[in-house]
Write the C-alpha cells for this entry.
Amino acid sequence: MDQKESGGRRGRPRSFDEQEVLQQVQEAFWKGGFEGTSIEDLTSATGLNRPSLYGAFGDKHALYIQTLRQYREATLARGRKILDEAPTLRTGLEDVYRAAIRIYSGHEEGRGCFVSSTAPPEALHDAAVRRELAATNDGLDAMFEARIARAQADGEACTDLPPSEAARIATAVLHSLSVRARAGASRRALHALAQSAVNLIAWTPGEGAADAAEDA
Amino acid sequence: MDQKESGGRRGRPRSFDEQEVLQQVQEAFWKGGFEGTSIEDLTSATGLNRPSLYGAFGDKHALYIQTLRQYREATLARGRKILDEAPTLRTGLEDVYRAAIRIYSGHEEGRGCFVSSTAPPEALHDAAVRRELAATNDGLDAMFEARIARAQADGEACTDLPPSEAARIATAVLHSLSVRARAGASRRALHALAQSAVNLIAWTPGEGAADAAEDA
DNA sequence: CTAATATTGTAACGATGGGTATGAAAATGC
DNA sequence: GCATTTTCATACCCATCGTTACAATATTAG
C-alpha cells in the first residue's frame, strides 16, 4: 500500500491510488459501455483530470483493457474460492450463482456481468477486446470444470456429462443471467433459472430433478 | 410489394425498399453496436443520404429500435417453424442451434446474436432498448417452452424439469453461443456446447447422456 | 538551497458526432 | 399544362469526441 519502496521514485508522487481509480473507471464503463463512455465521464467518475488518466494508464482503449483484465482476475478468484470451499458441487454452484446474481442485479437497474455486457460490441472489430472476452469465458469454463471433475471423482451427485461439457453449460447460465439482468429481469427470475441449472448439473440420480427443486 | 395502392400517395415516391434498407441498417449496427455506428456508417451501408434515413425512419435511436424488433420477429418466426416441423424435441433443438450457430458465426469473425450482442450496453440507461431485449428473451423462452411442453405431453425423451424451466436453459444456451461466437469461438466448439445442452434437455432416460453425445 | 523529475490543472487542438435548413428533382391531382 | 406534395442531394450547424501542449506545482537527489 506504501509507494516508498527501495530507492523511491523521483519527482512528484501520484495523488491517487491506481487500483481504486481503475475500479471507478470500471464502474463507469460498466454503466455506459466502451463507446458510450467518454473521457469526461471517466474524469468525473474518478475525480482525476485527463492528463493524469493518460499518464497513469494510457489512452481510453488501454484503460478499458485493464479494467477487463482486473474484473476477470477478481471474478475468477472469487468464484474459485466459493467453489473450492463448498462442501458439495450443488451448494458450490448455488453459492456462485447467488453471488453472481447479487452483482448482476446490483445498483439502479440490472448491470449484468461487466465483461459480457460491454465487451461483445467491441469484440468484433477489436482483437484485444476479443482476446479478453475469450479469456474470461475460458477461465469460467475451467473454473467450473475443475469443481465438476472433483465432484465426479468424489462420487457426488452430478450429471454424467463430461466435466468439460457440463462446465460450459454452467458458464452458459452465467452468460444468460447477465443478459437477463441487463434486460431488467427480477432477482426472483434469475434465481429460478440458476436453480434449474443446478438441478440439471448437480443432479441426484436416485431422486428426480423435480424433487430436488422443491427444497430450494 | 407495389406501392400503388388505392388512391396512391401524392408526391415523389421513395427510391428504395424500406425493408431492405432496414436490413442493411441492422447489418451495420450488428457490426459496430449502437454507439459504435455513426450516421455516416449507416448512409454508406444503405446508399441513402441522411435526410432520406431521417424522413423514413426517424433518428438513429428509432432506427435501432426498429431493427431490434425486426430481428426479433424474424428470429422467433424461424425458430418456431424449425421446432414445430421437427419430429422430436431432440432434432428440433439440434436444428435450432445449428441455424443459430450458422448465423452467429457468419461473416468475417463471429457476429453473435444481433440483440444480445448490441443491446446490453444501451439497455441499462435506455428503457426502450431494455424492453426490446426483454421481449426477445421472453419470446425465446416461450418458443422453447411450447415445444418442450408438447414433447412431454407426447411422452418424448425429455428432462423432467418443468417446461418453463427447461426452456430458460435452452435460451441460456443461445445467449452463451452468442457471447462465445463474438469471442471468436470455433464453430466446432459452439456445436459441442449445443450438443451437450441437447443431451441435458432432450434426455433419454434409458440410455445415458454420455452415450447420446457420441453420435454427434 | 539548487537542480532535476514527475504530476497536476487549464486550455486548446483537429476530427467527428448527430441532426437539419435549403432548394432542386420527381411524382400525382386537377 | 400547372399547382401541389413528397423525396433527394449538398452543405452546414453546433456540440462533443479523444488526445495533447504548456506551464505551474510538488517532490527527491545532491
Notes: Residues 1-6, 208-216 of chain B have pLDDT under 50 and may be disordered.
